[in-house]
Amino acid sequence: MIHEQRQALDEMIVKMRSGRLTRRSFMQRAAVIGLSSSAAVSLLEACGGSSNSTGGNGASTNIVWQSDNDTTNTYKGIVDKFNSTIGKQKGIHVTWLQGPTQTQDMLTKYNNMFRARSHSNDIISIDIVYPAQFAEQQWTVPIDESKWPASERAKYLQGPIKGCTYNGKLWAVPFRTDLGLLYYRKDLVPTAPDTWDGLTKAAQGVSPSKAKYGYVWQASQYEGLVCNFVEVLYGFGGSVLDANDATKVTVNSPQALQALTLMTSWVGGISPSAITTYTEDLSLAAWEQGNAAFMRNWPYAYVKSNNPQESKIPNKFDIAPMPHGGSETAGHSAIGGWNIAINAYSQQQDASWEFVKYTLTPESQKAGAIGASYTVTLQSIYDDKDVLAKVPLFGKLKPILQDALPRPVSPKYVDVSDAIQRNVYKALKKESTPADALKQLEADLKKVVTSK
Fold it and tell me: Which residues form a coiled coil (predicted)?
C-alpha cells in the first residue's frame, strides 16, 4: 500500500470509528483508493462499524485524540473512563488513536493534516519542543484563564507549563514530562556534588583509580547534546533566548562561556575522548558495566540500572538534582515530555476541552503514573501513597522536577536546536574555542529567529 493510500485509509477508519462516516460511504471510498470489497468489509468489522453509529456511549458529539505512543494501554484506560463517566453525562465520545513510535512520523502527519486544514484529529499530543511552532502557525488554540485558571495551573509543574507558553499564552496542557538526572555511585562518592566544579573534582578523584570514567553524558551531535548543554548553561545562570522574547538571543554571555569551557574540559578528562559519540544508551551501557562514577541520563535508566540481569551496579547508585555553578544556588534539569493541544480546525473545540481537562484530573494523572510510570505534571501525585508504592523513584523526583526548565521556547525550534548542536559540538571536538563557538552560535541564532 502506497503512502497516500495509507493516509486516506487511516482517515476513513478514524471517521468510521467516531461515527462521522456511514458504512456505504466507507465502502465507496475504499473502492476509490483500490481496496477490495472483502478487505473493506474486514476493516469495517475490525472498526466495529456496521452503521452510522454515534459512538460507544450513545454520544451526539464524537471527537478524536491522536496521542503519542503508549504501549501500556494507559491512554486507552483514561479514554474509556472518560467515555463511561463525564462523556456519557455530556454526550461526548472520544476515539483514541495510538501514536507512532517515531516522533518525526507524527510531526509529518500533523504537518499534512494542518496544511489541509483538516479536523480529522480534534485533540493532538505534541512533544515539548513544538507548542510554540504550532502556535505561530495558528494550528492550535490558546487555553485561557476561563478554561484553566491560574489557581489551578499552580498545582502543576511549572517547567512544562513554561514549555507550552508562547507570547504570553498557553497553547497546550502538559500531561507528562521527563527530566535529566544526575546519577552517582554512592559506593564511590559519599554524597552527590552540588556544583559542576564539585562534580568535576569528585570525578577526578575516583577516575581511573576506582572507575574507568569519571562522568558519562550525551555529547554526540543530536538533540541530546542540546539537553546536556542547556542543563550546564542554566546551572550557571545563562540562557539561549530571552524567556519573554523568543527573538532576542542571549547565549553569548559570560555564564555560557563558563559552561561551555567546563564541558569542553571534560572531553578526554573526566569523560572519555569518545564521549562525543555518546547517546543515552551508550552512556547507560558504560554506567551499567560499572565503568563510570557519574552519569547524566533520564529516569528510564533508574530501573534498568537496578536490574541485576543487565547491570553490575544494582543498589550501588542514587540520583541527584543537576548541579549549579558560578553564583547560582540551584541547578536545572532540561525537560522532555508530551502535551495535549486542541486542533484549531476542529469543529468540536468545547467538547475537546472537556476531555483535555479530564486528562489533568488527579484520577487521570494517577492512572498515568501507576499504569505507565509516566512522570505526570500534577505535583500532588509525587506524594500519593499508592503511586509511591508502585514507583518509589517518584519520591525523589518532586524537588528536581520543581526546578526543571524547558529547552529554548521558539517557533523555529528545529533550527535553533540545529545551531546549538553544530556549534557546541565544534567546541567539544576542539575544532573551535568555546568563545568562538558561542560567537558563531549567537550569529546563527540571530539569523534563525529573525527569518521569515
Answer: none
